[in-house]
Amino acid sequence: MTNDKGITTWKQQAKVKAAKYCAYQERTQQEVRDKLYSYGLYSDAVEEVLSDLISEGFVNEERFAQAFARGKFRSNKWGRIKIEMGLRQKGISDYCIRSGLREISEADYTDTLKALIQKKWNSLEGEDAYARKHKTARFVQGKGYESELVWRLLADLENS
Predict the structure, then answer these.
(1) What is the largest CA-CA distance in the chain?
(2) What is the mean pLDDT of residues 36-59?
(3) What is the spatial distance between Cα 114 and Cα 111, in angstroms, rounded to a whole number?
(4) Is the pTM of this model over 0.85?
(5) I need a labelling partner for 18 at 20 to 30 A (CA). Which of 50, 86, 127, 141 fits?
(6) CB–CB of 75/143 below 8 Å?
(7) How far is Cα 123 from Cα 155, in angstroms, rounded to an integer?
(8) C-alpha distances in angstroms, 86 versus 72, 107, 135?
(9) What is the rounded (10 degree) CA torsion for 81, 83, 86, 91?
C-alpha cells in the first residue's frame, strides 16, 4: 500500500520522464498517453499528468500537425492527401490538420510536384507516351498529390 506522498512522487517522476519524451520531438496526446501507461500509471494519473503537460506546453497537437506536415513534405515529398491521412491516423483534429497543411506554401508544393513529375518522367524514357504519362501520374498520386493538379502539370509537361 502506498501513501499519497508516494503516489505524488511517482506521478512527478512520470511527468518529468514524459516531459523529456515530449521535449525530444513533437508528440500527439495519444503517444504521450501510451507512454504514461507504459510507466505503470493508471487512467486518472495518466490524464492528470497529460493535462499538466498540455497546460505547460509540452504537448500541443496543432504544433505537432505543423511539424508533421513540414517534415513529411520536405523530407519525404508527400502530398497533402497523404499528409492528411497520416495525421488522421494519429487522431489529430480537423482544425489541427488544416493548420498543419497551411505550413506548406502553394509555390513550394507546386515546385516539388513539378520536380517529382519531371524526375519520374525522365526515368521512363523509352516508354510509349501513354504508359509514361500514366506511370508518372500513378507515382505522384501514390505520394499523395491531388489528381487534378497532377494531370494539369502532366499536360503542361507534354505541351512544352
Answers:
(1) 77
(2) 94
(3) 5
(4) yes
(5) 86
(6) no
(7) 18
(8) 9, 22, 24
(9) -100
